[in-house]
Design brief:
The protein has 19 helices and 15 strands. By secondary structure, it is an alpha/beta fold.
């Protein structure tokens, strides 16, 4: 169902709070480059200040909840369906808002970062939706954060073009461009180039989530509505319905602030953490006035399982990353439950991204990628998903064919209720796969993580490695598996103990094999990998320490 959106008013209906030197205030501490003043306007900074004044402390409370929940799971308390919210799950009558204008048909969505070239390629791709990714596919350099916003601003106004260093011109030529759904960073990530001072004079880094959302919404919401679409968002990494409620309150306040109707914002929530899988109904309920659907964020979901169960013993240890497919028991249960939950509430269920990508210089690689992606999308369409993700334009026809075969002329299959699905907590936690850890699997994890981190440190967030699309989520799986294998005293299939010394030997081999050049970041990447895979403590996210250590600039 599409809800009509009324034209916006021209001025905020909520008066901005008065800021003083004592706070609340936001100061820009990053360098200001060409056109940054078009994004970091006084009015936009005032809006970011409002968001932080109202929601920053709640964000910190929710992050504390995450730490407590992770501690509980690590100490033997498995997640379960909540007793205190059973009435929400039992109430068959409530529904979410559903699709906004331009989101009625989401059968193929393309994902990617927001630099000008990738923005233009996505808009020309022929996909129905573009996930404009400021999160896992973007290295959060100050340049990427602000200039990604500039790309989006220009694209929405039909003003974007790009000239490559080689002189190639890029322009948006598609007659119908995909609907943009922007993905801000998760609640855990800071933005250290903006400093928030609260009323008490305490200074902290701004929230990456509120910065990404706030700048995009403030500059583009009214223009998007005028274009017949709306301000739409993918919400990443949330772990509870309380986190969903926080986002819902951010949306409601923001709509009021610029004077657009309540419910104009539409959010699609990625179910990509283990705790969130036990609260899908509740997440939809808290966001019901703003929710379009859920997405099966497969790679972060696997990472979340490893992170939460990393110290719980051998039965919670997964084999090689390549063996953790969408058909293993716990992944099958999670996706079946997602489709059923979405359709019961009138929400779209969007499938995840297969990592296989084509190689235009290697027909055999391309053929294999198309075969793998076709099978993946056929399974999703058959399971009842309403759409899916791809990471490369050449894969759109493959994914489209599988969804066309099931959807036909219908924009979705929300009416397919899946009453036969009965997923239990034990099924969501059935991690048995029955495959070994191989020496090649260990080496692949070390190699992929180091090569990805090297690119990430140079400002690239989505990287083709060994004919797979790697981003922060897949790198998290690689490094967390290495950490778990070491700390659970695992051995490879051939009997080699997986120890820190063994992994150090692999690091040395890999650094000796990669193509080195002036300005590469392989030594820094290896240092980061050691910090997140070989230390006694397990960092919750590999990006947090690396961001503070390497990506923060001073004006």
């Amino acid at each position: 169902m599409t809800t009509p959106i009324a034209p916006p008013t021209t001025s905020p209906t909520t008066a901005p709070i008065q800021t003083t030197q004592q706070g609340p205030a936001i100061a820009v501490t990053g360098p200001l480059r060409d056109r940054y003043d078009e994004i970091l306007t006084p009015e936009a900074i005032a809006f970011l200040t409002e968001l932080h004044h109202r929601f920053a402390s709640r964000r910190h409370d929710r992050l504390a909840d995450r730490m407590r929940r992770r501690f509980e799971i690590g100490n033997g308390h498995d997640p379960r369906f909540r007793d205190d919210t059973a009435h929400i799950r039992a109430d068959a009558d409530w529904r979410v808002a559903g699709a906004g204008p331009g989101l009625e048909d989401r059968r193929v969505e393309i994902t990617g970062p927001t630099d000008p070239k990738m923005t233009i390629n996505a808009l020309n791709s022929g996909a129905r939706v573009w996930l404009a990714d400021q999160e896992d596919a973007t290295s959060p350099t100050w340049k990427n954060v602000v200039e990604g916003q500039l790309s989006l601003r220009d694209a929405i106004r039909g003003e974007l073009s790009f000239r490559s260093p080689e002189g190639k011109e890029y322009h948006v030529t598609a007659e119908r461009t995909p609907t943009i759904v922007m993905r801000p960073r998760g609640w855990h990530l800071p933005e250290k180039h903006l400093q928030f001072t609260d009323r008490a004079g305490r200074r902290t880094a701004a929230s990456g989530s509120l910065v990404d959302f706030g700048l995009y919404f403030f500059h583009n919401a009214q223009e998007l509505i005028a274009n017949g679409r709306g301000p739409y968002f993918y919400i990443a990494k949330i772990e509870s319905s309380e986190e969903a409620k926080l986002w819902d309150d951010v949306f409601s306040f923001s709509e009021e602030y610029i004077g657009i109707p309540h419910g104009t914002v539409r959010a699609t929530v990625l179910i990509e953490t283990l705790p969130a899988a036990f609260e899908m109904d509740e997440i939809l309920y808290e966001l019901r006035d703003h929710c379009a659907g859920l997405n099966a964020g497969r790679w972060d979901y696997i990472f979340s399982i490893i992170k939460n169960y990393r110290g719980r013993g051998a039965r919670f240890v997964l084999p090689d990353r390549s063996e953790v497919t969408m058909t293993v028991p716990f992944m099958r249960a999670y996706t079946e439950l997602l489709v059923q939950t979405c359709h019961k509430r009138g929400a779209y269920a969007i499938g995840g991204m297969s990592a296989f990508i084509p190689n235009r210089r290697d027909p055999e690689v391309t053929e294999r990628a198309i075969e793998k992606v076709s099978a993946d999308k056929k399974r999703e369409a058959g399971d009842g998903f309403d759409g899916t993700w791809v990471a490369h334009p050449d894969l759109i026809p493959t994914a489209l064919a599988e969804f066309d075969a099931v959807l036909g002329d219908h924009p979705n299959q929300v009416g397919r209720q899946r009453p036969e699905v009965m997923v239990t907590a034990s099924q969501l936690l059935d991690l048995h796969i029955g495959r070994p850890i191989t020496a090649q699997g260990v080496r692949d994890n070390v190699s992929v993580a180091i090569r990805y981190l090297e690119a990430w440190l140079r400002g690239l967030g989505a990287v083709a490695i060994d004919n797979l699309m790697e981003d922060a989520a897949t790198a998290e799986i690689s490094r967390s598996q290495v950490w778990q294998w070491i700390h659970q005293d695992r051995s490879t299939e051939d009997g080699t103990a997986i120890t820190a010394d063994y992994v150090e030997s692999l690091i040395a081999e890999i650094l000796g094999e990669v193509d080195r050049h002036d300005g590469d970041r392989f030594d820094d990447a290896a240092s980061v990998f050691r910090d997140v895979a070989l230390q006694e403590e397990f960092p919750a996210f590999l990006t947090l320490g690396a961001y503070s250590r390497f990506l923060v600039e001073k004006a």
